[in-house]
Amino acid sequence: MAKLRGLVLVGLLGAVLFTASPALAEPVRPAAVAVTVAHGAAPVVAQSTPNPGPVLDPAQTDKANSEKTKNKLIAGLIAVVLLGIVIWGRRIRSKKAKGS
């Protein structure tokens, strides 16, 4: 039962790590607001736009995202293989211990 619990926890952790993608989150940029008051007039609210950020090429962004996804899949596959080796080794060790 403990093995099953451990496998479930590893599976959930892997699912959370591989599905959460911080690259998709967009930062919130609040607009700057300035209030000016003239003599005898009502306050006027003027909004100024922030300086534009760097221009990103969508082709380069897509290429970077695909490379990152590929690297995550390779790392996940290696983790699964190593987990399989560990489980297989423990099973063999427990069979030897029972036989002795």
Automatic annotation (TrEMBL):
Signal peptide: 1-25
Keyword annotations of the record: Membrane, Signal, Transmembrane, Transmembrane helix
Species in which this protein is naturally found: Amycolatopsis nalaikhensis
Keyword Signal: yes
Organism placement in taxonomy: Bacteria, Bacillati, Actinomycetota, Actinomycetes, Pseudonocardiales
Residue spans crossing the bilayer: 73-89
Name of the protein: Uncharacterized protein
